[in-house]
Amino acid sequence: MLSHSKFEELKASGHLPSPKGVALELMRLTRKEGVSNQRIAHAIKADPALSGRVIKAANSLGTYQARPILSIVDAVAMLGFNTVRQLVLGLSLMEHNRDGACKSFDYQKFWTRSLLTAITAQHLVLLNGIGSTEEVFILGLLGQIGSLALASAHPQEYGRILGTEITNAGSGLVDLERAEFGFDHNQLTQAMLADWGVPQIFQEIALHHEEPTQSNFVAHNRNGRLLNVLHISNVFANVCLAQEQYRRPMIPKLILAATRLGVEMDALGTIAAKSVAEWHEWSKLCGLPSVEFPPFTELLEAVPLAPSLFGISDELPGSKDTFYKLRILVADDDKSILLLIKKLLERAGHTVTTASNGVEGLGMIKSFMPQLIITDWIMPEMDG
Q: How far is it, in rounded angstroms, from Cα 299 to Cα 20?
């Protein structure tokens, strides 16, 4: 656990990533009352490259503006001061932490992955209508800043941990960090976001986004769904940046995570395509590397959806204890959802058959005689 005193000690060392230049000036302006948009814009204009990125962000994140944002003043007015402050903080940290003393830490990859996570989170929020695109973009950009902080504050020790993590499959990175430092990168991320004035709910989401099941969030309320948005976005970024031979085995985990949020494979493919296209644009603007790979829809279709890949065992314990076994027909045009529901129901002892659309399902009723039908509503050929 990261105590307040330990965090203050880390801050005092001067080795943590911290606001510089324009970002530091905006942090100072935060403490003043009555600061105008023009004053904020004037501070940002001192860095032309940063100005371009803020305008790019305003146009990317603003979902309701009637015309393109062309000036910093307009960007500040559209995004709001607090959002601009946090956005500039994230972009400034990206600019001033492109390399460092930890030889095992890939600084460029860290930022390009963070950027892809931020863009993907933005699109998932737009799809689900569950939050602010501006805030979730910043959360995606800064959601793993604790990793960068450990590499900066303890380059030798963290380098050894990263080497161990690669060679020792039995120990996770978080476990190794806690053994070495007494806290992990997610706990440090939470403390840094708190120090920078990021809302508490986003601190907690950052803390738990790698392992959402370990949180106390309710899965289907707004905060629980935001947690899953960041989790899916992080998994997606890891898939994209993985070496080709490791990429395909990671996709079922992504599909499963997306399914829990109600994002079906077609929608996931669409979001992936939009996110990757924007990622390439942002990477050029920020001078970061990006990766070329086949269209994501092709990757999704090429992965065989075996139950074992989702962590669903083919063995179905407890089926003999089912009080009343049913014949159940499941109709859905998303094959990942079909597979998951089928296996879970079979595990409970029921007899299950599936259909990929309403017409196919209707044709099965006479021969299968289901006692229960579970159906999607929107499907090709015939709806639910």
A: 41
Share of the chain above pLDDT 90, in %: 56
Alpha-carbon distance of 292 to 381, in angstroms, equals 36
* Torsion angle, alpha carbons of 28, 34, 37, 42, to 10: -50
Place of tokens 């669903």: 312
Distances (CA, A) of 156 to 110, 138, 153, 165, 345: 18, 29, 9, 14, 50
Token pair in block for residue 371: 């006692």
The residues pairing with 375 across neighbouring beta strands, listed in sequence order, are 331
* Of 324 and 43, more confident: 43
Place of tokens 């139950």: 307
H helical segments located in the chain: 4-13, 21-30, 37-45, 48-61, 72-79, 81-96, 107-128, 133-142, 145-153, 155-167, 173-181, 185-195, 200-208, 222-241, 244-260, 265-286, 296-302, 335-347, 358-368
The residue among 313, 307, 314, 186 whose CA lies nearest residue 255 is 307
Which of 235, 381, 249, 340 is CA-nearest to residue 302? 249
Q: Which amino acid is at 156?
A: Q
Buried b / exposed e over 360-374, threshold 16 CB at 10 Å, is bbeebeeebebeebb
Q: Residue 169: its pLDDT value, please?
A: 46
Do 343 and 315 meet the contact criterion of CB atoms below 8 Å apart? no
Residue 329 · residue 373 · CB < 8 Å: yes
**In the 3-class helix/strand/coil scheme, how is 97-145 assigned residue by residue?**
CCCCCCCCCCHHHHHHHHHHHHHHHHHHHHHHCCCCHHHHHHHHHHCCH
- Its sign, for the CA torsion 345, 347, 353, 354, is positive
Q: How many residues does the chain have?
A: 384
Tell me the per-residue pLDDT of 229-241, one tens digit each, with 9 for 90 and over. 999 999 999 999 9
pTM of the model: 0.82
CA 20 to mean position of chain CA atoms: 26
